[in-house]
Design a protein that fits this description.
elongated; mainly alpha; Arc Repressor Mutant, subunit A; 112 residues; 11% strand
């Protein structure tokens, strides 16, 4: 089993601030850089940069709203990320099981 992983996508969600932003956007339905910066420990400018990263990998869509830009999570792209994570998790579970079997074999041979 091999997992196909989008490195740019995982790099984007690898940052804890960006994950928190996704959580907030999902909970609220949408948000602006200003509303997000009020709830995060970073500046509005930093929020804007993080949103740019999320936008480049397709995790958020932006809609102009007056002088602000309204961001929403692309649920299809997020679902794709979840599928990738599950695939990676399954691959690692299989690897760890093989390592466990090898370790048990070694242990049994030492006891013999």
């Amino acid at each position: 089993m091999t997992a196909v992983v989008d490195d740019e996508l995982w790099s984007a969600v690898g940052d804890p601030i960006r994950r928190r932003m996704l959580d907030l956007l999902l909970a609220d339905g949408s948000g602006t850089a200003t509303t997000l910066s009020e709830r995060l420990p970073v500046t509005r400018q930093a929020v804007t940069k993080h949103l740019g990263v999320l936008g480049r990998v397709g995790l958020v869509h932006v809609t102009p709203s007056g002088r602000e830009r309204l961001y929403q999570v692309d649920e299809a792209q997020l679902a794709r990320a979840v599928v990738q994570l599950a695939s990676v998790g399954s691959a690692w579970d299989a690897r760890l099981q093989r390592i466990r079997r090898i370790a048990e074999t070694i242990q049994r041979s030492k006891e013999s």
